[in-house]
Amino acid sequence: MKGFLTCSGNVIESVVIPVNICPDDVDKDLVIDNLDIDIDNDGILNCDESNGDAIINLTTSNAPEIIFSDGSTNVSIVSSSFIESNTSATTNTFTGTNTGDFTTTVNSGNTSDLSYSLLFTETINFQFTEAQGNPHTPVEGEYFMIKISPNNKNISLVDPDDQLLIDTDFDGVFEAGVLYFSSTEIRFKYNSTPTGTTPYKFVASKILGTTFEHHLSNTTAASVFQGNFSLTCFAKDTDNDGIEDAYDLDSNNDGIRDLYETTGTLNTSTIDTNLDGLFDVFETLPSNLDSDGDTILNVYDVDADNDGIYDLVETGLDDAQIALIDSNNDGIIDTIVDNNQNGLHDDFETIATLDIDGDKIPNFIDLDSDEDDCYDVIEAGFTDNNTDGILGTLPITINSTGKVTSGIDGYTSPNLDYVTAAPILINVPFVDQEFCELETNRLTIESTADSYQWQLSTDNGATWINLVNDARYDGVTTKELQITSPPCHLITTGFK
């Protein structure tokens, strides 16, 4: 604000005071996003739903480079700018290293300062700390500022041992005892009497830029600061729906909430005793499950139990509904409708994750969803030659989304018997049979089973092997087994 006195013409101008909005809290768990280790409350840590942390290579400070956790690099999404001034006509400097460490030197002068900015073409998660092993030596007349953009975002200070003094109301007075503080910009000095040595850090989420300023008003001494810039939990968007996985309630668009896929339970407790943003129930439960052991985590697996039935189908939608949202039959919703931008297709906002038999194991990872002692894969009408509940035979092969590719069928509309509990009844019990050598003989079973597999045992039932159709046996997957020209050594052989 600026004004002037009419009697003298003197101009009076107020200091610039940033206007801040409340920090984001996307999941409404009362832990702001900057400090929330599980931003979407799905039980998966943000960094586990990301491409990992990244280093900012500042060796060439005017051409920074991002180094990702896999060793790859990128220079196109980051750029920088540097400004410095000094009334004593000496040059202030910014130098950096390939680990993100940097040193700023502001030389003595009545007014001496510098500003270094990083700009990004996509949102990033940012962290600013003091460089490790380089404690700061305070100089009279110095202060620092860190700010971020856009201006509807905040950066948060975490300083448990009161290392810094903070100007919380931008009046030029720096206060002690500010252990946590969030603002669009934060001005700070070093505290000569901290309560401990725990390092401080500044963190911000989903920002597009940051600026560090180093100011000095001292005509006899220079001020040197050593810090570090880094990127944390670099965004990953598995399903390409525009919602990064850390904020996405359904990271692979299979219609199953990540909340249930990560632990394999339907627990919905929201207690968070330590206020870190991760519900207590997830502190002890195993997370990031891979229920079928195929190396694809449940949250990214379109068939988390490898039973040949897409998880999308096991949500309980009927064939017509599935056809509308998954026209190419890949187990992934074609085009997500997401009016509230939480990453979950709107159709599933009010649909409960199914657990037909109430055994606390959701259908999508339950090999026998209706608990009738018949595997879903068989009841659905698919092939399971070794009767292990998994589509096809061993060894299992899958594609990049977790779909079994080694089976001869599966992933079509399943017979709904797999969610209809109906015990198998044998109407006529077996009795010992007499076969005639060199003749055709038959064994028949009367049962309500949906499918059949005849087996043979030569050790009084200790072990059983599946029969296959050949010159001797026919109808091995039907009610009637035909045995042609049985040899004498079949005496005492068991069939079932």
Give the secondary structure arrangement, pairings included.
Layout: E1 2-4, E2 11-13, E3 54-57, E4 65-67, E5 73-74, E6 78-86, E7 93-96, E8 101-106, E9 109-130, E10 142-149, E11 155-158, E12 164-166, E13 180-183, E14 185-190, E15 201-218, E16 223-231, H1 258-263, H2 280-284, H3 319-325, H4 376-379, E17 440-444, E18 455-457, E19 465-466, E20 473-474, E21 480-484, E22 494-495
Antiparallel strand pairs: 1-2, 3-4, 3-16, 4-5, 6-9, 7-8, 8-16, 9-15, 9-16, 10-14, 10-15, 11-13, 11-15, 12-14, 17-21, 18-19, 18-22, 20-21
Name the average pLDDT: 88
What does the largest sheet look like?
14 strands, antiparallel
In terms of quaternary structure, what is this? single chain
Pattern of helices and strands: EEEEEEEEEEEEEEEEHHHHEEEEEE
Show unreliable segments.
none
Structural class: mainly beta
In DSSP terms, counting alpha (H) and pi (I) runs of 4 or more, how many helices?
A: 4
Radius of gyration: 33 Å
